[in-house]
Amino acid sequence: MVAIIIEVILGFLTFTGSLMAAGKLQEVKWIPQRPVTYPMQNVINIGLLVVAAILGVMLVLNPAGPWAPVMFVVIIALSLIFGILFIIPIGGADMPTVISILNAYAGLSALPWDLCSITNF
Rounded to an integer, what distance in angstroms lies between the CA atom of residue 120 and that of residue 66? Predict the structure, then answer.
């Protein structure tokens, strides 16, 4: 369960982050090229990630609970939102760095599953 939660958070964060980065590079009209900032941006971003992690821990501790399917969907939604909010404050010139970070996250999202399959968990 821990590997699945890590994969879900990193995978969906990478998915929406990559879409936003590609949109900025392709100069899609509704995605601003300039950095978009707002008050308490870092607090909100870290808060989303922390809430997703807490829900993940709750899900790992009680995967058969009646609320487990809802929590899983909430974790996915928080990860998708975090992926968008993670990329919007970054301008177009920094996109190569962002893309390499997102590629690293994609590799990390596959790592727990690979480790579990290697060690036969």
Answer: 29
CA 54 vs CA 11, 20, 24, 31, 89: distances in Å: 17, 26, 31, 31, 25
The model's pLDDT over 92-112, given as tens digits with 9 standing for 90+, comes to 678 888 888 888 878 777 765
Task: Report the pLDDT value the prediction gives residue 104, as an integer from 0 to 100.
Answer: 83
- Structure-token pair, residue 35: 């950095």
Of 115, 118, 121, 106, which Cα lies nearest the Cα of 7? 106
**Residue 105 in tokens:** 């996250």
Output the pTM of the full model: 0.82
Helix, strand, coil content of the chain in percent (nearest 5): 75, 0, 25
Average pLDDT over residues 82-101: 85
